[in-house]
Amino acid sequence: MTLAAAHAAPLPGAPFVSYRDGRLMVEDVALSELARAHGTPLFVYSRAAILHALAAYQRGLAGREALICYSIKANSSLAILKLLADAGCGFDIVSGGELERALAVGAAPSKIIFSGIGKTRPEMLRALQAGVGCFNVESMAELDALNEVAQSCGQTAPVSIRVNPDVDAKTHPYISTGLKGNKFGIAHQDALAAYRRAASLPGLRVTGIDCHIGSQLTTPAPYLEAMERVLDLVAAIEAAGIPIGHIDFGGGLGIDYDGDAPPAADALWARLLARLDARGYGDRALMIEPGRSLLGNAGVCVTQVLYFKPGEQKNFCIVDAAMNDLPRPALYQAFHRIEPVQAAAPDTPATVYDVVGPVCESGDWLGRERALAVAAGDYLAVLSAGAYCMAMASNYNSRPRAAEVLVCGRDAQLIRRRETVQDLWRDERLPG
Length: 432
Ligand SMILES: *Cc1c(COP(=O)(O)O)cnc(C)c1O
Prior knowledge:
Layout: H1 3-6, E1 10-11, E2 14-20, E3 23-26, E4 29-30, H2 31-38, E5 42-46, H3 47-60, E6 66-71, H4 78-86, E7 90-93, H5 96-104, E8 112-114, H6 121-130, E9 134-137, H7 140-152, E10 157-164, E11 186-187, H8 191-200, E12 204-210, H9 221-239, E13 246-248, H10 265-278, E14 285-288, H11 292-295, E15 299-310, E16 315-319, H12 328-332, E17 338-340, E18 351-356, E19 365-372, E20 379-382, E21 403-408, E22 411-416, H13 421-425
Parallel strand pairs: 5-21, 6-7, 6-14, 7-8, 8-9, 9-10, 10-11, 10-12, 12-13, 13-14, 16-18
Antiparallel strand pairs: 1-2, 2-3, 3-4, 5-15, 15-16, 15-20, 17-20, 18-19, 21-22
Helix pairs in contact: 3-10, 6-7, 9-10
Pyridoxal-5'-phosphate (PLP) binds at residues 71, 73-74, 92, 94, 115, 212, 215, 250-253, 289-293.
C-alpha cells in the first residue's frame, strides 16, 4: 500500500482534512502551501466542514419551526459569520461587540438572541434599537434593568428567561453551566416567580424560555433530562397564564477531540423531538444555540517546529504557536490531536515530546507526550481548532494574533491578516 492510499480517509475528528501523497490537505488545499504563503501560526477552516456540521442540525430539525442561532463566541470572524448567515443561521450573542459583528455581516436582527449574565444598559439599548429577536434574561435584576431601558425608549423588549435545570452535564467544571452552584440562569424553583415578574413589567413581553447546560456534552442523557425539566416549567408557567411561544435548548453538543463520540446532531434531535412530541409540545417554535459543534472540527492551527530541547524527564518540541493563540490546553487541560503537515516516511522513528509554545508560562503547552517524527522547520497541524481558539486568542507576551484562511475546494482566502506589532500598540500613548 502506498503512503497516499494509507492516508486517503479523513482524519479522525477532522472531516475534510486528509493526507494526499503524504501531504496534509484541508479540502483540496495543501496546508504546507498555506503555511509558506501566509506564515505560521495560521488557522485554516474548511467551509465544507462547517456546512456539513450545520446540515446535521438542519436535517434533525427539518419540518419544524426552528431557528439555529450560531453562538458567535465560538469563532467570531466575520467571514465565518457571513457564511453561516448566508446558510440561514441566526446568531446567539453575549456582548455588544458580538451584536455589531452580526449586524456587520447583514444578519437579520430578528434572528439574533442576546444571552449573557452581564448585559449593560447601553448594550440593552443598542440591541433594542437594532430590533433583536429576544433577550435571554439571566436574573431578576436584569429583568428590572431591561424593563427600565425598554420603557425609556418606548419599546417592549421580547424576553425569554434562562432557567437553570440543575442537570449535571458531566463535562469540565469550567464549561458546565446547568448546575445549582454556578452563575448562569435562574434556579428551577425560582423560574415561575421570575416569569410572573416579567409578565407584570410593562416594558417586557414574554416570548419564550431557554436553557444551556454546558459545553462539550458527549451523551444525550443530560439534554433529555434538561428537556424534561424545562417542559415541566413550561407547563407550570402556562398554567399561571403566561404563554411560552418558543423553547430554546441552548448549545453544548460536543465534538471529537480525542476519540470522543458525541451523538450526531440529527440523531440527538430525533430523540429530543420524540420526547417533545410525546409531551405534547411538538408544535412549539424551537431555537438552538450551537457553537463548538459547528466550528470545532472544521479548523486546524498550523504551527512550525522551532527547536527540540531534550530533558532528563521530558523531550520538548518547541513550536511557534502558543497559549495566546490556542488557549484551550492551558485553560482546560484540553486535548487536541497534533499531526505532521508532511507525513513521515513509514519507518521513521518517532520521539515522544511535549509540544510547547514560546510563552513564558509552564502552562503554555499544546500537547503532552506526543509521538512525532519531525525535524526543526517542519509544520504541525493542531486539529479541532475551529472553536474557542482564535476567538480566545490574546496578545500575551506581545505576540500578534495569527492569520486565518477559509478553504473552499481548491480555493483558499485570507479572512484575517496576521496582526502586526504596530497593531499591538496602536492605542497606547506615552505620557506627555
Ligand atoms: C457558549 C454558549 C453557547 C454555545 O455553546 P457550545 O458548547 O459552543 O455549543 C450557547 N448558548 C450560550 C448561552 C452560551 O453561553
